[in-house]
Request: fold
Amino acid sequence: MIGWTALVPIKAPADRKTRLAPHLSPAEREALTDDMLAHVAEVLKASPSVARAILLSPEPPEDGFDGWIADEGRGLNAELEGARAHLDCDLLVLHADLPRLTVHDVETLLADAVDVAAIVPDRHHVGTNAIALPAGAAFTFAFGENSFAAHRAKPGTLIVESPGLMHDVDRIEDLIG
Reply:
């Protein structure tokens, strides 16, 4: 296949954006995540370097994606490793909570990931919002607490800072700022 495969992991609706629970109702959190996911899918569809977009989730997508891989509940890193082995291609992993994502952000990241894994931190440089992995690149996923430090420590990893990829939504302030 020519082009990158984008893989977007997302939790089940009831488990999404629980850190926003003090500020948003379950229905509001579900609507917010659905809107952000739809935005990410639209951007991926418009990105010339992305050949297909696949959702990794407990439930199949309603629309916007070219395929679905069922999340079997093994934890994000194990699910991503399993999907990567199954897909065996140039792989872009990015989260669904990127409301400012643009085609330019995606294309910039993919252009930089020619022979190495390229990672994008969140704007606080704590988490990891996206990883571009050329087929065959040596890399092990390390999502979780302080994932940016864990991913950055891997040999041969390139750090890419792109505004739309760095702005994720984890706290109420992220919706305002």
